[in-house]
Amino acid sequence: MGHRNHRSGRIFRPETSCFGALWLGPAVLPAAGELKDRGREPITPGERVRYNVEVRNRAALIQNREETLELLRAEAGGRRSRLPGARVPPFGGRCKLRGGWMSGYDVVVVGSGISGLSLAHRAALEGRKVLVLERRERIGGCLHSCRHPDGHWYEMGAHTVYNSYGRLLDIVVAAGLADRLVRRGPARARFGLLKDGRVDWLTPPRVLLKLNWLEVALRGPVGIFRGKEGRTVEEYYSGLVGKGNFRRVLSPFFAAVPSQRADAFPVSGPGSLFKKRPRREEFPRSFGLPGGLGEICAAIAAHDKIEVRTGTGVAALHRAGDGFVICTDGGEEIETRIPVLAATHRESARLLRDLAPELSAAVAAIGEVAVESFGVRIRRGRCWMPECAFVVPVDDVFFSVVTRDPFPDPDWRAFAFHFRQGLDREEKIARISDLLKLSPGDLEDPAEERTLLPSPRVGHDRVVGGIDRRLAGLPLGLTGNYFQGLAIEDCIARSESEWERLKARG
Predict the structure, then answer these.
(1) Closest to 53 measured CA to CA, from 316, 249, 241
(2) Which of 162, 164, 208, 324 to pair with 31, CA 20 to 30 A apart?
(3) Is 136 exposed, middle or buried (0-12, 13-18, 19+ CB in 10 A)?
């Protein structure tokens, strides 16, 4: 490809020009002998991206930009063809994109889950202009409120927040949502344990009745004095209640939290499921919003310093002078001094592969699982199941089914099933129909979502420490649910600490 001079129609190909070869150096485009053999063969898109980025790097070192442009024009035969990227505006100016000019951004965040949005929120509150890029057509990541035209909604992802989520509450207050919080209703206290086709309806105190207390008596006195450090969830809790009790009762409930088997999770520290946090008693103990948790994401995105672009994947991230260039799948090149990767850890590792190979490898080493969620809603009164918060199976093809019942609707009920991998759509519908005792035709407005989640293990604290050591010298941000934990509050905590680190760099 080349840059077309619209007056002459000539294609200016920098890879075949003397000044272009001098500018780029041998490591960017093919050697002179290869170019001679290729003649006028167009360069590949990958070469084009590397070429544009290298031009920006070189241009940042040249003080007299007008002289540089004059040299380029002279080399092109006196025509005013502009080498793509030859103009490198100062930070806060405008950058050249395919199809026009775009205003500069102080911060560009890749990923619009709560990790990315909470960092964008902090940056915007401090007056920074932020662009958020999201590959999917919706924002929110694991905060996914599935909405319907009649106003009914249910949660396909995270479904419960607590008044111990102080950082989230700070965002709620700043976004003007504090007076919209809705206390979860009575159904929050009822849940089911499914085994051999039968559901036992429980409340928190009744869970204790499912334990074998002889086993607890034998194991508890010893296990209670053992510490948590370096131990798995299974090791620690089996030491408290016995292995049998853990497998039959506790393990299924733990698995329902991250929608994956959690027995090998660390019981404390980064990656753990539960952390003790102070409660904000001025707020309900557990709550939602009238339009679902997605309201929080929408409120952040509505900030006048934040621009969100959905349906925009990122192909590459490169250094450019004292900043970075983000190349989108659509061919745009966006300059920023502060890029923040808030995508999945697999996606972040890919974008770091050429820029920081060791950091990329450290991020890629984190385990992951795929969770396949399937949501349905049914007319109120059609389902046999009493109102409840969730149902957890002891051994089944799904980890949990979460309901909308704690926020009751007069016309509808809704259920989000979180399946293990491997079932096709028909098999999922059949299992849902069987549990709810309905025909497939009664399951209205089905919705599907596939999510990749980290799967931390003991030693995750060392993994995170290794990532942060490799990240410390780089002027870019890295955040997500693979640092402190999967909880919303853990994600926000990481994003806020990462923003403070970036600010301290100046």
Answers:
(1) 316
(2) 324
(3) middle
Burial 84-103 (b: 16+ CB within 10 A, else e): bbbbbeebeeebbeeeeebe
Distance (Å) of CA 385 to CA 152, 405, 434: 20, 11, 12
Q: Which two tokens stand for residue 163?
A: 């008044």
Alpha-carbon distances, residue 361 vs 102, 165, 345, 354 (angstroms)? 33, 32, 11, 11
Eight-state DSSP code of residue 232:
B
Question: What one-character DSSP code corresponds to residue 249?
Answer: I
Instruction: Please write the tens of the pLDDT for every residue from 84-127.
Output: 332 222 222 333 333 333 447 999 999 999 999 999 999 999 99
Give, in words, the CATH class of 107-140+285-367+456-505: alpha beta
Distance (Å) of CA 277 to CA 166, 272, 274, 423, 487: 8, 13, 9, 38, 12
Residue in 213, 242, 258 with CA at minimum distance from that of residue 367 = 258
